[in-house]
């Protein structure tokens, strides 16, 4: 069985990332396209092998095509709630790009819309599909009771960032600007490994005019499990190494997951033992990471095929949590780092 | 001119660290000793070449010896305020070991006592004497406007820690236990480099029963300058690398100061440039660090010789700030990471 995918919003990421992923999956076929500027949809359709008759003048027209099995929407984030409502109206399963929504009100609407239907609704949060997550879950029981962590993703400002020219990013209507745009990835990864965040205290600042809003975040977190840690995120600095790592501290050892781009492969390093005197040698594991974008499409395709929304790995309720952490951090920063309880759905 | 030093409290650190430092400085001479258990003072005096007639039965007797030029006190932290009051009464300059006091009330009393006299009163906070601080101050203007930092000092629990047996550490009357005991060092270094801390939000936890109280801290800070960052401290984990580093991010570059014990020497690495495209090569500087304990004694000796308390590099008001940050972190943690303004003197 082949699933026909209707792509709504044929911008950079649709062309550079979604299309190759969809084309690499046997059972998926790019079958229809819509873009506000139709000429861009035409170019995309040609690249994708979509017949010109399936390039639509309106989203509704695409949604009314009975041959389309699900919608892949890559829209300015503030449009996510409307396209989901519209897809449900037309009985189409839909995946949207992260972040889930422009603000928590819209995010809540999306969660409620998803609850109101049996259609699979998914958020394309590919970081939840990294195979490193499962590897870490395997290792963690060996290091005892987890007590704390540091998560740090920092990098220099990229003056050639192709996404900088995106109008909705330059003048963000969505909370957090780049902090939510990229931060939800980091938080998806963190929470898949360590569970939900309960309290956030932190500070944000704007380093780059081009970010349109605050673009760095330094925070401390308390998880629902009682684990404490720091979460640091920003790619708006002057020259510095691009570095991304999670260190997990426990009472019988520690694990470092480093996926900085300077490494040949993402690397997990761990040691066990209750103290300095009983420390084991380090075990180092290089990860052959999956193509996470393909994995998320495969996952959503399975849910659509099975008509079973419970199979969706990142449903709106999960992506809601990622954005809620950013929202809490922004609120905290407005109050000099107050403790903000993360909104629950 | 030789200055005669009266040592009050002849425990491990007096014998292992202060005595060699005092003996290495030409103008200082260990000249009198007092310990609650006199036999320990006798052993110390013999090692130090102090005549047995100058081993006293009481602190007052030592303070009444007119030949003693200043007092070096290494007492359980809750005794600092009393020994300072007593030294002032006897017109003796005095240095005490960090942390300044067992709590903020006592710390404030010490600051007030120091203000009430022209005698030099100092806190032995040797980390404020690291030559790395001056090197960093030289480099920082090259990286532009500082926006943020991460300070992280983490290590495994040391089951053979010789200080663990110290009674006042096992049953801490002082706030923060090991968090203040070691944390004030880290905060002395941080604040010498980046200035005062205004707000603290964070979480603490107790990992080791032997700590007597919370022993790890994960926090976010906002400095008076507006710079934001995270401060992570703890040596109570299971097996992990002992690692201590400060990364400073600015809009035209970044600096990493790594003084992890695994390195041959403390190392400062920096790069400049406004973004990834304009990043300079890295400059790496290995620091031949000074003997900071000798430096702090030399500094205090100069102040005593000159009868000028303004020469003291770490007067009580400065050490007050270091402890106030820990106090704020502890209060914050009690309230799920609330924003706590650091008490000012």
UniProtKB/TrEMBL annotation, chains A, B:
GO terms for cellular component: cytoplasm. Gene3D superfamilies: Dihydrodipicolinate Reductase, domain 2, NAD(P)-binding Rossmann-like Domain. One of its GO terms (molecular function) is oxidoreductase activity. GO terms for biological process: NADPH regeneration. InterPro entries: Gfo/Idh/MocA-like_OxRdtase_C, Gfo/Idh/MocA-like_OxRdtase_N, NAD(P)-bd_dom_sf. Residues 142-341 form the Gfo/Idh/MocA-like oxidoreductase C-terminal domain. Residues 3-118 form the Gfo/Idh/MocA-like oxidoreductase N-terminal domain. This is Putative dehydrogenase.
């Amino acid at each position: 069985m082949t699933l026909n995918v209707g792509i709504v919003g044929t911008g950079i990421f649709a062309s550079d990332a979604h299309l190759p992923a969809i084309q690499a999956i046997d059972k998926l076929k790019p079958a229809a396209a819509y873009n506000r500027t139709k000429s861009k949809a035409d170019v995309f359709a040609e690249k994708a092998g979509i017949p010109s008759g399936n390039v639509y003048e309106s989203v509704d027209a695409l949604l009314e095509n009975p041959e389309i099995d699900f919608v892949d929407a890559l829209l300015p984030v503030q449009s996510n709630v409307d396209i989901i409502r519209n897809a449900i109206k037309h009985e189409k399963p839909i995946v949207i790009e992260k972040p889930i929504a422009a603000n928590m009100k819209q995010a809540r609407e999306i969660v409620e819309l998803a609850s109101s239907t049996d259609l699979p609704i998914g958020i394309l949060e590919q970081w939840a599909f990294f195979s490193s997550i499962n590897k870490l879950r395997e290792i963690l029981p060996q290091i005892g009771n987890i007590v704390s962590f540091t998560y740090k993703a920092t990098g220099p400002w990229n003056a050639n960032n192709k996404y900088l020219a995106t109008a909705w990013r330059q003048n963000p209507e969505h909370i957090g600007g780049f902090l939510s745009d990229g931060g939800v990835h980091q938080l998806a990864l963190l929470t898949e490994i360590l569970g939900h965040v309960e309290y956030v205290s932190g500070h944000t600042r704007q380093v780059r005019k081009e970010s349109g809003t605050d673009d760095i975040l330094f925070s401390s977190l308390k998880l629902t499990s009682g684990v404490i840690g720091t979460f640091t995120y920003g790619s708006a600095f002057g020259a510095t190494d691009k570095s991304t790592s999670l260190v997990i501290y426990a009472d019988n050892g520690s694990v470092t997951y480093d996926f900085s781009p300077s490494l040949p492969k993402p690397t997990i390093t761990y040691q066990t033992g209750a103290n300095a005197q009983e420390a084991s040698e380090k075990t180092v594991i290089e990860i052959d990471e999956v193509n996470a974008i393909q994995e998320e499409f495969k996952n959503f395709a399975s849910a659509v095929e099975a008509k079973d929304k419970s199979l969706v790995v990142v449903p709106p309720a999960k992506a809601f949590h990622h954005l809620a952490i950013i929202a809490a951090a922004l609120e905290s920063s407005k109050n000099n780092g107050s403790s903000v309880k993360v909104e629950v759905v």
